[in-house]
Amino acid sequence: MGDPMKLVVMALATGSISMTLARSRMFREVRWWLARGRPEWVWDFVKCPWCMSHWIAAGVILAIGKPVAVAGNVWLDFVLTWMAVVALAPAAAFLIYRCYGDLPPVPTEQEWKFPVPDDDEVT
Q1: Whether the model pTM is above 0.90
Q2: If you count Cβ atoms within 10 Å of the first and of the last residue's Cβ in the chain, which end, N or C, has fewer?
Q3: pLDDT tens by residue, 30-54
Q4: In this structure, which long-range contacts are made by residues 34-38, counting pairs with CB atoms below 8 Å and at least 24 apart in sequence?
Q5: Does residue 101 sit in helix, strand or coil?
């Protein structure tokens, strides 16, 4: 597979994975579990496809095993490939969700914050 095509495939995978994890109903409970009782930035991370795509892209590039050769330096090639995939991933995610419908709304604070049980409720 040529380098430009590899970049497109990595961006499609990153966009699809990050949107599925960050916005689909299928992973809603996982997002809520991750955010419960943790700092606000954790919730911002798990509900934001853009934020999540940075780490998903790094994982995709590492899983493939070789970044797209641009500069001839492995670390620089990794960073450039990483940022290129992150830049292209939203376009892929947009196309995927346009095919299947609009994004579900991000839950309100009351919907995602679980109440802390009282001592009387703990068994």
Answers
A1: no
A2: C
A3: 888 888 888 888 888 888 888 899 9
A4: 35/112, 35/113, 36/113, 36/114, 37/114, 37/116
A5: coil
